[in-house]
Every structure is written in C-alpha cells, then in structure tokens.
Design goal:
Helix content: 25-40%
Radius of gyration: 16 Å
Order of helices and strands: HHEEEEEEHHEEEEEEEE
Number of helices: 4
Structural class: alpha+beta
Distance between the termini: 28 Å
Length: 215
C-alpha cells in the first residue's frame, strides 16, 4: 500500500500544471491507485492549492492551480486490507523565500521527529519535538497531532499528540506528518509512514521530499 502511494505520487507530478483543478487531480490520484493494485482508497484524497492548502482537511474544489501556488496532496491506497497514507507539498514554479522557509521548517520537524522515534519513547514527547522545531523556526504551532498508527484502519492507535499516553514499541507503523498552515501563503504538510524497529525507526515511504518545485 505504501509503495503504491509512492508510485502514485511519481505519476501525479507530471500532471501538476497551472489551470488544472483540484478535483481533476484528486480523481487522477484515485484512478491511478485503483488501476494499479488498490482494493480501494484509504480515504478520499485531499488536494488543496494556494490559500486552500491551509485547510487541514480540505475537500478538493473546482479551484484551478496558479503559478506560485502551494499544492498539498494527501492520499492513500488500501491493498490486501492494509492502508497507506502519504502527504507531499510542492510549489508550481519557483518558491518564494517565505514558502521555502515554511517548507524547510516542516521538513526539519519531520526529520527531528523521526530521530526521536524508538522503542519505549513517549508519543507525546515525539510530538513535542516537532512542535518545538516549527516554533524555533519562527512559526506558530500546527493544529493537529504529529501522527497516528496506520494499518487495517488508516487512523489507529497509538497517536502522536500533546496528551497521548502511548508508548512506542517495535512493529508499530506510524505516520510522521508535521505541518504549517498560513492563511495567506497556504499550507505545507510532509507525511511519511514509519516502522518502529528494535533500535529506532525506518521510513517506509520513499516518495521524494527534498524538491519543492514542480514546473
């Protein structure tokens, strides 16, 4: 399921162009997943562009992409009963300095949270690592938990959030999805699926996240 998400992301990148609508891309995401091995989608795809990318649970609209937009893609496939969950954010064209700064803050939060994931770690402590990272970068806190378990359901326990009493253990598959949502600039979220191992954590998602720009 996670590998199909990676493949679907690679497929959709070539279709992200100005004047394409959020709904067109959401439909293409679902078609590609269903025709390449998905039993169904894990959830209805989220495609948010421009200021609408700041809506955490945005329903794709008829808005058409414009050059300079953030485009946030959140989607997943269910394969053999198991769910994937993937979020990537790109800019159509060259990002502004502020967009780059926002993106790098989220990317660093993603990396710092990953480094804190290991057996016996407190989930609320891992969540706190990501929140401190975005605050130290000069941004406000994000309005959702850092992540959740994923498996037979797309949202399962344990949970990464401020009040979680969960403890990480080997074999758990968790999402790592910090974000920053600004009313005018738009939103950034970067989400991977991560396996907790005997010694730390392994990122199962391989969709690239080091490139912000698509043309």
């Amino acid at each position: 399921a996670i590998a199909l998400g990676d493949d679907t992301y690679a497929h959709i990148l070539d279709r992200l162009r100005p004047r394409t609508s959020e709904r067109e891309i959401a439909l293409e995401l679902e078609i590609h997943m269903r025709t390449n091995g998905a039993d169904e989608v894990s959830f209805e795809p989220i495609v948010g562009s421009g200021p609408l990318s700041a809506h955490i649970h945005h329903t794709p609209s008829e808005r058409r992409f414009e050059k300079g937009d953030f485009v946030l893609l959140d989607f997943g496939a269910r394969v053999d009963g198991y769910c994937g969950d993937l979020t990537r954010t790109v800019v159509l064209g060259s990002p502004s300095e502020e967009q780059q700064r926002q993106y790098e803050a989220v990317l660093t939060a993603n990396a710092n949270a990953l480094a804190a994931m290991k057996p016996d770690a407190e989930c609320r402590a891992v969540d706190g690592v990501a929140r401190r990272t975005v605050k130290e970068a000069g941004f406000a806190d994000f309005g959702h938990g850092l992540g959740h378990g994923v498996g037979l359901e797309v949202h399962e326990s344990p949970r990464f959030n401020r009040i979680s009493e969960d403890i990480l253990a080997p074999g758990m598959v968790m999402t790592n999805e910090p974000g920053l949502y600004l009313e005018t600039a738009g939103g950034v979220r970067i989400e991977d699926c991560v396996l907790i191992t005997e010694t730390g954590a392994e990122v199962l998602t391989h969709a690239p996240k080091d490139t912000l720009t698509v043309v």
